[in-house]
């Protein structure tokens, strides 16, 4: 059974930084694209970033380019999202998601990031 | 960016009756390889999203057969053949053809 468990969320001031982690199990982590998707309170879903299986390619939504960095450690079956220069509009529940066939086929429970002074 | 538009945004349904949700993309989701990369997700209250349908009409593992997807090009439909109480939640379509991957606004399915 695929399991994705996010951690690292919390309350941070505007301009601050936070690093999210996602621990994966139940599949061969190093073979799959992985991504982060966020959901602002009471709102819809927004794709944030994804990364190739070997980490050689990373892709971002325009609103986080230059501020967020997605990375992975295949030896540790872990995905990360380093978030810098955080803004109020980054407040959201952040989901770690496994790629399927041009879709997201498994999702974690999410970790909440709140950006507020 | 490809814009995904869902209708309706809210759908009151009667248990045991069918429900349909429409999704329209601002450009065709047909890939040069012949696949159409439209997926549907369900989000029950307080839960993360769950994949129901991928590549327009393929049910994901463990998804009941009362859920079906159809469509082509820019117009797609999710159908629930007979709504059950556990189907209450918000449904999203998503395109995986090109980056940035984008979602519809969501359709809330609630029991009348």
Structure description:
In chain A, a hairpin with a 6-residue loop joins strand 4 and strand 5. The model of chain A has no long low-confidence stretch (mean pLDDT 97). With 117 residues, chain A is mainly beta. Chain A contains no helices and eleven strands. Chain A has strands spanning 3-7, 10-12, 18-25, 34-39, 46-51, 58-60, 68-73, 78-83, 92-99, 104-107, 111-115. By secondary structure, chain B is an all-beta fold. Chain B has strands spanning 4-7, 10-13, 19-25, 38-43, 50-54, 58-59, 67-72, 75-80, 89-95, 102-103, 107-111. The mean pLDDT of chain B is 97. In chain B, strands 2, 4, 5, 6, 9, 10 and 11 form a seven-stranded mixed sheet that branches. Chain B is built from no helices and eleven strands. Chain A binds chain B through residues 37, 44-47, 50, 59, 61-62, 95, 100-110, and chain B through 31, 35, 37, 39, 41, 48-51, 54-55, 58, 60, 92, 94, 96-97, 99-106.
Q: Kindly state the number of beta strands of chain A.
A: 11
Tally of helical runs of chain A: 0
| Rg of chain A (CA only) | 13 Å
Write down the oligomeric state: heterodimer
Q: Structural class of the helix and strand makeup of chain A?
A: mainly beta
Q: pLDDT average of chain B, as an integer?
A: 97
What topology does this entry show?
The complex is a heterodimer of chains A (117) and B (112).
Chain A: E1 3-7, E2 10-12, E3 18-25, E4 34-39, E5 46-51, E6 58-60, E7 68-73, E8 78-83, E9 92-99, E10 104-107, E11 111-115
Chain B: E1 4-7, E2 10-13, E3 19-25, E4 38-43, E5 50-54, E6 58-59, E7 67-72, E8 75-80, E9 89-95, E10 102-103, E11 107-111
